[in-house]
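Board work, copied verbatim: Chain length determinant protein
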Amino acid sequence: MSGPGTSGGGAERDPAPAVHPDDEPDLLRDQFRQLLRYRWLIALGIALGVLGGGWLGVSGADSYTATTEITVRPLPLDSSGATSATGGTSMGSERRTALSSVVAERAADTLDSGRRPQQLAADLQVTNPPDTRMLRFSYTAHSPRAAARGANAFAAAYLGNREQDAEARAARMVDSYEKQREPLLKERDRLAEEIASSGREGALDGTLSAHSSVVSRIAELNGSISDLRAEDTTPGRVVTEAVPPDAPAGPGLPLMLGLGAAVGVGLGLLAAWVRLVFDPAVRTPGDVVRALHAPVLGTLPRGRGRRRGKRADRRARSRPLLAGGRLAEEYRSVAFRLAYDETFARRRRVLVVPPRGSIDTALAASVNLSASFAEMGKEVLLLEADLRTPSLTERLRHADGVRPGGTSRPEAGGWARAPGHGTIGWPAGHRVPIDAGESGVFDLVPGHRVSKVPRALTSSAVTQLIGHADDSDSVLLVLAPAVLSYADAIALIDRVDCVLLVCDPREVRRDDLARVRELVAGAGGCVLGALLHSEGTGGDSGRGGAPGPAAPPDRGLPARSYPAEFVREGVGLRVLDR
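↓ predict structure ↓
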């Protein structure tokens, strides 16, 4: 039988788990919960959206828009002077003409407001309704009367400019025809005199034919001139004249505030998503699973609050190592999951290590897991392999009632310096029996500073201690420094095999977890899982150096039935005499 989310070996744990289609809603919910971690970005987006909407609402409250509609009549002549076809007016060209500077200058002369034509044109909007020969002039101003005057002025300026242009075209064509007619009139008069003075009948016939042709051409030109002078050059007419509007043109302050808030929510979520994408930190247990390719075996409940600084570290070190209440139950749950894991069951040894940073939480986890395995009737050996800054001995001395000069003897595994201190002689076979109250007894091999840590960790004495787990009903827990800080843990993986990572998901990066997984797999081991905690997690009872009573079990937890020897009533640790 194996624990949830476990497998039989390191090679089977390494591949990333495939995402089942049924898990996609859970992933979406997890991502949405991660976005809500950046509430300040969402709040900032909403604030900016509301401010922008309020500014637009307030700035549009004193603006009024009036509209004038005109119909555009096709002109008889196009720009080249040729007669235009019926209905051949280009409304796109007419709209651009209505927005031109020429029309703006005529409107400025009419309004006489002292503003430049470009400034007046900036407040004008000309549109063409689909499938019509109509132009709609919409003018915006700070007063209703000014808006109506502006719309009417621009419409009149456009119509006047168009009529003037049509008249100018007709005048140019008439002038052109008259210039063509002048030489023909002279030729007609000359031919007429020649006919009158000619006496020969053959010559008279040729002159009469030429005279008739010139007269006919002159008649055509006179007809064209008459047609041009008779053409109607009316450019169009006003269909709807602008009147002063009764209400401002803006959508209103409430609507703009609502739109601004909606846009702000979208901007805030977008900013939170961008922040989440580029955030290298691990934020949720799902991120840990995806980066480590191993399950989360447990999550330690938070303590009374987050504390920072050296004083907070001293307070954390002074807490009792054995936990009570919900924290103790979480450690017990992790121990049971490890006990029924196939990989751990074959070797019964685990390396408890953080990825980087402080070792305090991993130290407390190793002690509590040792006590939990002792509850199960296992012969537990806890090996403190931190030979650079060993602290477990000091924690036991000050935090759990052990005092200097007690009954423990050096030769029996007491607290005096072990033989070989400062040399490569660690561990020299010294074990300290630790009484964990009702949980049972486990052995401790405390660490101390040595001059050559790599040689000490790879010595035959350490190999013999690790072989303790080969006995039936025996469990070995090894506490080592951070994997990414020192190579001490990597040096032990080939003999310990299984790794339990203790980390704070908010203080570790995804690439850190991936790097730890690669190092462990490269050294021939496997990551059993992760034990997550948060800053401030620790024992929830006791202060100073004396052990306190066990915290009452959390009433929110379901009732469990344990044998009598599994019930933990005290949370203090003490060293047994031998």
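Confidence is low (pLDDT under 50) at residues 1-16, 305-310, 399-423, 538-571.
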